[in-house]
Specification:
- The protein is α+β, with helices and mostly antiparallel strands.
- The protein has one domain: Nucleotidyltransferase, domain 5 (2-Layer Sandwich), CATH 3.30.420.
- Helices cover 29% and strands 29% of the residues.
- The protein is built from two helices and four strands; from the N terminus they run E-E-E-H-E-H.
- It has a four-stranded mixed β-sheet with strand order 3-2-1-4, covered by helices on one side.
- It is elongated and about 45 Å long.
- The model has no long low-confidence stretch (mean pLDDT 89).
């Protein structure tokens, strides 16, 4: 299933993490951090899931923070998208 991760930097500098336009988590501007466990929960990976990441900044605030979180999610989903679910294939190590 195709899943779109949308990162939205809000005007109040909180960062909304959405999957297919449903907010899954809000990173408060006072924290600007997220745990690996929370990312795992947000992705909710199932066999044959494929992810894309997009980002949006509502008011040109904290664009660098948004870009850092986008890079984090892109690096994670690039690996997740490579997961081989067909055990007859040789792994790409």
């Amino acid at each position: 299933m195709e899943k779109v991760i949308k990162l939205v930097m809000k005007k109040d500098k909180n960062l909304s993490i959405q999957i297919n336009n449903e907010e899954k988590y809000l990173i408060l501007c006072s924290k600007k951090s997220i745990t690996a466990e929370k990312i795992y929960e947000i992705l909710d990976y199932k066999k044959d899931d494929h992810y894309n990441v997009i980002s949006e900044c509502e008011s040109n605030t904290d664009e660098k923070v948004l870009e850092l979180f986008k890079e984090l999610f892109v690096s994670i989903i690039n690996k997740v998208n490579e997961i081989t679910t067909d055990y007859n294939e040789e792994p790409d190590f």
